[in-house]
Structure formats: C-alpha cells, structure tokens
Amino acid sequence: MERPPTASEARPKGWASVVSFLTELPGLLLVALTVAVLIKTFVIQPFYIPSGSMLPTLEIDDRVMVSKLHYRFGDPKPGDIVVFESPYTSQDDESFLQAVAEAILEAVGVANGEEDLIKRVVATEGQTVEIHDNRVFVDGVPIDEPYLMPGSRMQDEPPTTVPSGHVFVMGDNRSASSDSRVFGPIPVSSIVGKAVFRIWPLDRLGTL
What is the count of structural domains for the chain? Predict the structure, then answer.
C-alpha cells in the first residue's frame, strides 16, 4: 500500500519557482529602481510642463524627455529648448530619504524639482540681445521666431551682452514668461539638459 504524499510533496512542481521568484523580487525591484535613477541622473529624464510660459510649443501638463548627455558633446544653440535650475530657488539641505523619494518621482516623470524651469535659448555667449517694436534683435539683426504665442507682447529692453559661459533664455509665450528679461542670462552650468521629445499627450507625440 502506497503512503500518502507529505505536504511538501503535494505542492505543485512550480511551487519552488514561485517561492524563488518572490524571494528574488525585492532585489530585482531594487536593481530596476537603481537603473531608473541612474538613467534619470545621467542620461535622460521625463519632465512635465507646469505652466503656460512655453505656449503654444508646450502646453500645461505636457510631458517631455530631457537629454542630459546633449551638452556633454556640444554647446547650447539658439532655438534649443532647455531645462535649467531656477535662479529663484535657494538650495536648501535635504535629508537622504527626501533625496531618494524625489529621485524616484522624477525618474518616472511624476514630479520635477521645483527648482527647474524650461525656456528657449535665444542667444549665446558674446551675443547682444535687444528688444524693441515687439521684436528680438540679436547682434542688431531681428530674429525669426515662428514658434511664438500669437498675440505675444514684449516691452522694449536695452542691449544686453551675454557673458561667457551663459545663455539668454525666453519663453515662447512672451506675455506670460519670467525669463532672462527678468533674471538675466543663465549659466550654462545650471542647464539640466535639452528637451528633445514630447511623449504626452499621445496625439502630439514628436520631436521638439
């Protein structure tokens, strides 16, 4: 007469695989999270648009991918849309857990640091920017700006020469953008990366 199977023998053959997977799952999740954070930190990062300063190019709640490698191999050029650290934000100390939580949210595009802004490069170092008659002049020549929000208005601004290592940035919605007209040219070192692709909404998916 055969003996009845023990509890361990009665388990399905795949049980060991399930147990092994569940045991390894925390490690797999940690590796995936680490890779995501490293990619966000050094390669590319999702970024959401919190305001209308870049209308009509970027709408509120759009999502864009920002390349962090772009300017390791070249310099910002007029027309580039860049994300940079806001000159208004003080860099307060944060705890390790706060830094990790922020990195996780940013890695999946749920949130950006409040210190980040997005604008378009209008002029680079050594160039002189002037605004009059509702037009931007760079080195005395009016520039073509087909991306501007229709009806945008600009106050006249005296000539400003962009210092070495800086760029002059402006929002496409000139009537509702706080930019280099207010806080001056920004250091290239403060640029997080170049916005290269719109990933949301799907009906406006495409390069920038």
Answer: 2
Name which residue leads in pLDDT, 20 or 97: 20
Active site residue 119: yes
What is the domain extent for residue 31?
13-42
- Same domain, residue pair 123 and 36: no
Determine which one of 53, 68, 177, 180 is catalytic. Answer: 53
Q: What is the pLDDT of residue 72?
A: 86
The one catalytic residue among 40, 68, 119, 194: 119
pLDDT value, residue 15: 66
90 is catalytic: no
Match 């999740």 to its residue by tokens. Answer: 29
The whole-angstrom separation of Cα 42 and Cα 48 is: 18
**Separation between Cα atoms, residue 171 and residue 206, nearest integer Å:** 20
More confident position, 34 or 175: 175
